[in-house]
Amino acid sequence: MGQREGMSRQVVTVDGLGASGKSALARHLAERLGYAHLNSGLLYRSAGFLAHRAGIPLDDGTRIAAELKQHSIILQHDPVLGAIVVINDKPYEAELMARDISEAASQVAKHAQVREHFLGIQRDAFAPMGVVAEGRDMGTVVFPEAAVKFFVEARLDVRAKRRFEQLLSKGQGADLESISHELAERDNRDATRSTAPMKPAQDAVIIDNSDTPLEQTVDRMLDIVTSHAKGN
Ligand code: DC
């Protein structure tokens, strides 16, 4: 069942810049609302991972889309890890956060055929549950009818530090300067591609996630969702 047919399904979208903290915000917001956390970045990371593993050049959208059709890729919720992706019955999370996979994900996400492959998967994921859908084009392309849309930003220095700590916590070495450079480059690629570029939906609420504590920002987002539901 696609989203257009399933109009009763509640959808809140959380798009935003890389390492802006949108995953943590989306996860907490989903928990508070009793919705599923739909992390679409994990799909593009899976595509980057599978293309890389099959030795397909990252600029070959047709071959990558054909490769994707050979695999089962399902978004799921793990009680400990939270949002995970299950590829051919095997769960993946940490290995998809590696730097080379982040880069590959952004490269493969440019291709219309790859995005098309994931469209139905995203619209059907966790149905009929409500979802907090996180990514780059959730509010603009995948769920344009979403009730409430957010776009999360944060200063580059804050985002670089966040990604640095995330990589360290997963046992992956990194240096702050090159992470900052990679993030800026990837955001530029994601924002300037011709298919589904990263941008705030016209009706999105912009959230600056540079300095405010997580709980406070989640509370504010929850207030916005709740007052929308009441018709305020
Ligand atoms: O949110 P993330 O950092 O896990 O996303 C990884 C890459 O996937 C990112 O560089 C852009 C791409 N992406 C996308 O193009 N569209 C989405 N809805 C989500 C992610």
Task: Summarize the model shown.
The chain is an alpha/beta fold. The chain has helices spanning 22-33, 41-54, 61-68, 99-108, 112-124, 138-142, 156-169, 176-192, 214-229, and strands at 11-16, 36-39, 73-78, 82-87, 90-92, 131-135, 148-153, 205-208. A hairpin with a 2-residue loop joins strand 4 (82-87) and strand 5 (90-92).
What report would you give on this structure?
With 232 residues, this protein is of the alpha/beta class. The chain has one domain (10-218): 3-Layer(aba) Sandwich (Rossmann fold), CATH 3.40.50. 47% of the residues lie in helices and 17% in strands. The strands form two sheets. The chain has a five-stranded parallel beta sheet. A three-stranded antiparallel beta sheet has the order 3-4-5, covered by helices on one side. A hairpin with a 2-residue loop joins strand 4 and strand 5. The protein is globular and about 50 Å long. Residues 18, 40-41, 44-45, 105-106, 109, 135-137, 186, 190 line the site of 2'-deoxycytidine-5'-monophosphate.
Topology, element by element:
Elements: E1 11-16, H1 22-33, E2 36-39, H2 41-54, H3 61-68, E3 73-78, E4 82-87, E5 90-92, H4 99-108, H5 112-124, E6 131-135, H6 138-142, E7 148-153, H7 156-169, H8 176-192, E8 205-208, H9 214-229
Helix pairs in contact: 1-9, 2-3, 2-4, 3-5, 7-8
2'-deoxycytidine-5'-monophosphate binds near residues 44, 45, 105 and 135.
CATH architecture: 3-Layer(aba) Sandwich
Extract low-pLDDT stretches: none
Please report the number of helical segments. Answer: 9
Q: Structural class, from secondary structure content?
A: alpha/beta
Helix content: 40-55%
